[in-house]
Amino acid sequence: MVIGPLLRDNARLGDSLISVSPLPWKPALLSLRCTSSCSTSNFECLDTSADLSTYTSFVQKIGHAKDLHCGHFLHTFIVMDTPFHSNNYLLSLFVQMYGQCRGLEDAHSVFAQIQEKNVYTWNIILGINAKLGMWWKMREIYHRMLVECCLPDKYTIVSNLSAHVDSERLTECKAMHAGFANTHLEEDMVVGTALMNLYGHTGDTNLATILFVKLHNHDLITCNSLIAVYAQQGKENEAFQLFEHILQQGFLPNRVTFLAVVDACNTSAALFIGKKFHAYVSCTELDLDPFVLTIFISMYGKCDDLGMAVSLFDKLSDRHVVSWNSIISVKAHKGHKDDVFRLFFQMQQEGSLPDKVTFRTILCSFSGYSDLGRGKLIHIYVMSQKFDSDMIIGTALFGMYGRCSDLESARRMFDGMINKDVVAWNAMIALYGGDEHGGNSVLELIDQMQAAGVSADKVTLTSGLSACAGVSIEAAQRLFEKVKERNVAVWNAMLGACENQGYGKLACDLFVQMLEETAPDKVTCLVMLSLYAVNVAVWMRPAGYLGGHWSKML
Question: Where do the PPR repeats lie (predicted)?
């Protein structure tokens, strides 16, 4: 029976409680302080005569307060002093409460005690793991749910799909989808929208469109979701057609709609569609909305119409920091560094203080030794705003120093960061990729990264392999062997290392091994052709050794 760490941490008190009747130990428990908005005075009304609704109310309040200590306190009281300790509904609420308090171990422990689990109970534990990003645990729970003959409902499906929006786990999601395909669940708007987001995220816009059509009733949320899918995949024509469909259906587009359509217009080829959309907005009351104008500034910048972007910015009478960030980003994207620097000071003169996005955009625009002085000046401003301790800004800072040929300062900045996520580690590793002696430093960094408890991802290893390619093939192989799941980028990096070091035979063997795990791309083809041109003898292998494999790549 789980009674939480309250008694585990107070062993002497726990031993005395077990040997006496429940009521005498209540004052002792009340003497232990609870934190947050739940205080011990809240528990004074608790006694053995309290009904189930009283306890459920307390559990829900503690969950909203996210007070794990108070949760343990109340749980202990109910276990020791009430007849409700095995009530399935109350136990389900405790699971939910522990999840809200991020007490995952306690949540799973209480969940295991529930004798009769229904779909509501399963959904609670799935939702907790979904919020914490523990998709592997969700997969295990979902399979257990099916084994115990509990049929999932739409909330089960949505929790699982939302947690698995990743192309590397698409197979699992497709298997889950196959289990309820062509049923009423697929036609549910909530489930259908989740499926559209899933397949859209992984690039299958055709299936996302089919799922949209299957939904008998469309609302603005489902339409916005599909527009966002089209935007992610660069299908601006389809996005605009769906926008017109929204108007025909009598829906009133909102800011999410506008943002989704504008996101689809992000190349010069999409400028015509973007102008058509802007023409529609110009006929509405949103024409002067600062938010809407700001997203059009961004759109024209992405579509290489810098003049229109500047014109819209000048039209803004009320410029907030988001508007300034938008025009600064446009100028940075076009490489107009002088304008970026000028706008940075102008925004402050007009009363807008730069935020983290401003600093990150400006820092990322600097590259080359000639920008180092400006970069150092921005660094001073960052420190004056006390943003230098922010992980994202810290990453942008050492990245700026690295691109400006001051790798020593970049490493010093990186080493001084207290908190580093995988993005920060990857950025530092990538900086060594341009240094001819960076391979040894990369191996050292990856060892430090793992010692710090940060797991390397495929970006880490791809960047690392690129850096190691200039040191030795042995270093590259050691790093390559650390990769458990290799995508085409990792394979290409390793093949590139072989090319740089002149190991044609090893590249040939790796290429054959690669084809057993993943499909090659154009980069693979270029690397292998380069190896072929340099050392034709490598390819003079027994008949059939490479012939069939080469045809696969072509």
Answer: 118-152, 219-253, 320-354
